[in-house]
Design a protein that fits this description.
5% helix, Immunoglobulin-like, 23-stranded parallel beta barrel, mainly beta, Jelly Rolls, 733 residues, 54 strands, single chain
Length: 733
């Protein structure tokens, strides 16, 4: 904290000097190289089509730039409702000891980027409503095009996803009291050390709250990092798609993550040692401290820590698929945490010398699951260069209350499990014959435990967290919606409770639809609707609910509800403000066009390069199909073969169907590898020479078509190697 005190003294002096500065207006290509006070205004300045040039550059040493609430708005030629098209870099910072405060930037691919800046401070700024992609997963099914991959950032690959703030080689940075919401990624940093990041609100983004790559000895404290999520539909699928509240990758060590609210995110905390560790078995993301955080309500893992050594202490982890997923973790402490209502609380494959103590496990299917696989992947240098047996565990003085199976252990050795309090369990221990040298003593309802917090403090005496004096409480208030059912994904991210929304909660066994109405305090009413009948309520106060029946239509499902809200101020999903007391219109739509698809699969020889030899397709289709089937929807995802005794690679898919509809429609297709879509033999989507999957991501392609009457739709798709998918959607405008 010494450098922080010195910076405060310097900045207070600079602030005094800056008070005499004349106000400056912003303009494109402006370079700020001295202390400046910016005239408060809204500056609509478009960025470049590249992140190599910025609208505004701040460079120099010992600078204070006070924007006084000025707003820099980019992509002014793009509708606010299309943030996936936002482009350009708003602010570029270079130099040393630079303070930026009271700035709003929106409408860019990256709002602010700092490179090689030591002693950067960003305070009381708002970088919300910048780039975020449209999501193609919906309530009924996942679309794999929404998956992200953050495994590499040696060449700034993360920039393809945009960011509110992107820091590179910025040591001793401080970011405080900033807001970044309704984007894809909030704060992303690479090779940044010894920083302090606190009192920020980086919530409701569709990717990452805080991302770190090769960044060490940072303090991440008292931040709101909730609902950084995608890839979830309550009780339908729970994928997360590599979204996370906190992402820690590739040799990021000795960081402290304390007192943060990291709820309702894909993973709460997602740590991976990095590719260099996977290749060599050396290094990792080690000696990080996770203390006093709330990692609850993650679709996947509250905490994922793999191939590394860390401390996970005194955290709250509730209603996750896994509380802690610790694959290949070693010498890791898991102390004093509270686990409730998870499927599995702690799951570790091939872990070593881990200590699990003083935790509370309540209302779980499985408390602690330890296991090993029979064989290791041959392309993992980690497994080839290290002893990766599951072994040497110390598990003691935990409480298990209403846990069906407290311990499930397979293929592990040298374990001591003793003095654990167990109440209302089924099978206390499940194990296989490969478990060796297990000490299992005093694990029942008669065990008397002392106060857990005092125990783990004595067990880990060197754990301290430096707390800022101006800290704020980031935890969700008691009256805030809480639980995975409140992860309600829209086309551009999770619903943030700042605007009215109609949500279809379920369709019951009788076919009746159950809607919920969310929003701030106020009144709502239905103005128009179609495709529904017998609506139980057409007006009410927030929050509310109603039911309705669908009008039967064998040709298509076409439901629309237009409603009006009057009440509190509304901030739309895209940042538009409707003042208090003014009407705000919100709409629910659901469309499905059933098509009887005739699907055929064909194999082809490895030597044929269909991407660059499309003329070979006609010869392939002359052969007998490997497989034929009918389906009413194209939703194929193949991680392995397309069927029993059928290939996983080098195959072609064709699908043909007919529709009879009228109107303007959007056809969307996700494919890996190549795909073409025809309507009445007219090519409308041509993605045959597929992108080669540089980042291991499937691609989604769109086309707008006008249909009137009967039409024939044909899809041609080919798979070369690896993962394969073919998914089609048709939506009505």
């Amino acid at each position: 904290m010494k450098y922080k005190k010195l910076l405060i003294i310097i900045f207070l002096y600079l602030i005094f000097l800056s008070s005499c500065q004349k106000e400056v207006g912003l303009k494109n290509s402006l370079i700020i190289s001295q202390n400046s006070v910016i005239k408060r205004d809204i500056y609509q300045l478009n960025g470049k089509n590249s992140l190599q040039e910025s609208v505004i550059t701040i460079e120099g040493e010992n600078l204070v730039v006070d924007f006084q609430g000025a707003t820099l708005q980019g992509s002014n030629d793009i509708p606010l409702t299309s943030p996936e098209k936002f482009y350009g870099l708003g602010i570029l910072v270079k130099g040393k000891n630079i303070m930026i405060k009271n700035l709003t930037v929106k409408g860019f691919k990256v709002a602010l980027m700092a490179i090689d800046v030591e002693g950067l401070t960003i305070s009381h700024c708002d970088f919300s409503y910048n780039y975020r992609p449209r999501l193609f997963s919906n309530q009924e099914r996942e679309d794999v095009a929404d998956w992200m991959s953050y495994h590499q950032n040696e060449k700034d690959e993360w920039l393809r996803y945009g960011a509110g703030i992107y820091l590179k080689n910025c040591n001793k940075a401080q970011i405080d009291n900033c807001t970044i919401t309704n984007g894809q990624n909030a704060l992303m940093m690479t090779n940044c050390h010894d920083g302090l990041f606190y009192n920020n609100n980086f919530s409701f983004n569709s990717g990452i709250g805080i991302g770190m790559y090769r960044s060490s000895r940072n303090q991440i404290l008292y931040n709101k990092l909730d609902w950084n999520v995608r890839g979830y539909s309550h009780e339908v699928y729970q994928r997360g798609q590599d979204s996370a509240g906190i992402l820690v990758y590739e040799q990021s060590n000795e960081n402290t993550f304390a007192y943060n609210s990291v709820t309702h995110s894909g993973d709460g905390f997602f740590l991976w040692a990095g590719q260099s560790t996977m290749d060599t078995g050396e290094g990792g993301c080690n000696d990080n401290l996770l203390y006093g955080n709330d990692f609850s309500h993650a679709p996947t893992n509250g905490v994922e820590v793999t191939f590394s050594r860390n401390k996970i202490i005194n955290n709250r982890i509730e209603e996750c698929n896994h509380g802690i997923w610790g694959g290949y973790s070693y010498e890791t402490l898991m102390l004093g945490n509270t686990f409730k209502n998870n499927q599995k609380s702690i799951a570790i494959e091939h872990g070593q010398k881990n200590e699990i103590a003083y935790n509370l496990f309540e209302n779980e299917a499985i408390g602690i699951h330890l296991w090993s696989r029979k064989e290791q992947p041959k392309d993992w240098g980690y497994a080839q260069n290290r002893d990766v047996r599951s072994m040497d565990y110390q598990i003691f003085e935990n409480q298990f209350v209403s846990v069906r199976t407290p311990f499930q252990i397979f293929g592990s050795e040298n374990l001591t499990i003793k003095n654990n309090l167990i109440k209302n369990a089924g099978d206390i221990l499940k194990k296989d014959d490969l478990v060796q040298h297990l000490t299992f003593e005093m694990n029942d309802s008669s065990v008397v435990l002392a106060e857990a917090s005092e125990k783990w403090k004595k067990f880990a005496p060197n754990i301290t967290v430096s707390v800022p004096t101006d800290r704020s409480n980031p935890m969700l208030p008691d009256n805030h919606p809480r639980g995975r059912k409140y992860i309600m994904m829209t086309e551009y991210g999770a619903y943030n409770f700042q605007y009215p929304m109609l949500w279809l909660r379920k369709q019951d066994s009788t076919g009746r639809l159950h809607f919920e109405v969310f929003g701030k305090e106020g009144n709502w009413k239905i103005k128009n609707f179609k495709g529904l009948q017998k609506i139980s309520a057409v007006s009410g106060t927030m929050p509310s609910s109603f039911t309705a029946e669908m009008v039967k239509n064998e040709m298509e499902t076409d439901i629309e509800i237009e409603a009006e809200y009057i009440g509190s101020e509304v901030v739309s999903p895209f940042g538009e403000i409707t003042p208090k007391g003014q009407p705000y219109t919100f709409v629910f739509k659901k469309y499905f066009l059933p098509i009887v698809w005739q699907v055929k699969f064909f194999g082809y020889e490895e030597k044929i390069d269909l991407a660059h030899q499309p003329q070979e397709l006609s010869n392939i289709l002359k052969n007998k199909p490997l497989k034929e089937e009918k389906t009413d929807r194209l939703e194929y995802r193949w991680w392995r073969s397309i069927g029993e005794n059928l290939p996983a690679d080098y195959f072609v898919t064709t699908a043909e169907g007919e529709v009879e509809v009228t109107g303007e429609f959007e056809i969307g297709v996700t494919a890996d590898d190549g795909v073409r879509v025809y309507v009445d033999d007219k090519l409308v989507i041509d993605a045959w020479q597929q992108r080669l999957g540089q980042y291991d991501e499937a691609q989604h392609y769109l086309a707008t078509v006008q249909l009137n009457g009967k039409h024939k739709i044909r899809i041609e798709h080919f798979e070369k190697t690896g993962f394969a998918t073919l998914m089609l959607s048709i939506n009505k405008f």
